[in-house]
Amino acid sequence: QVQLVESGGGLVQAGGSLRLSCAASGRTFSSYAMGWFRQAPGKEREFVAAITWNGRNTYYADSVKGRFTISRDNTKNTLFLEMNSLKPEDTAVYYCVKYSGTYYKTSLTDYWGQGAQVTVSS
């Protein structure tokens, strides 16, 4: 069983920055790809970013490319999402996810966190 707990959400003005963290339980964190999804009010959940088990490869949605950075610290079982130049349309609940394999493109998500609210005011 894996537990994912997000933190770092909050209210920020447009153009500002936030850093989300995701603490993962279990000793197998470093063996799996991880990622972030988000869901805005009235919209479907969407992919934001993903990272391979060793952190060497990352992948971003076009809407956040160049503004968000995903990273991980396998020694601390923690996943991060650095969000810069935030826009009101980034307002959403952000979810940390674990993939079933080492590479996100060939794996499915199998565990989700409870979500962290990010609100960007204009």
Could you name the ranges where pLDDT drops below 50 across 5 or more consecutive residues?
none
Query: What is the 3D form?
Result: globular
As a whole number of angstroms, the C-alpha radius of gyration is 13 Å
Q: What assembly state would you assign to the polypeptide chains in this entry?
A: single chain
Short description:
By secondary structure, the protein is mainly beta.
Structural features, described:
- By secondary structure, the chain is an all-beta fold.
- It contains no helices and eleven strands.
- The strands form two sheets. Strands 2, 4, 5, 6, 9, 10 and 11 form a seven-stranded mixed beta sheet that branches. Strands 1-3-8-7 form a four-stranded antiparallel beta sheet, with no helix packed on it.
- The model has no long low-confidence stretch (mean pLDDT 96).
Topology:
Layout: E1 4-7, E2 10-13, E3 18-24, E4 34-39, E5 46-51, E6 58-60, E7 68-73, E8 78-83, E9 92-99, E10 109-112, E11 116-121
Parallel strand pairs: 2-11
Antiparallel strand pairs: 1-3, 3-8, 4-5, 4-9, 5-6, 7-8, 9-10, 9-11
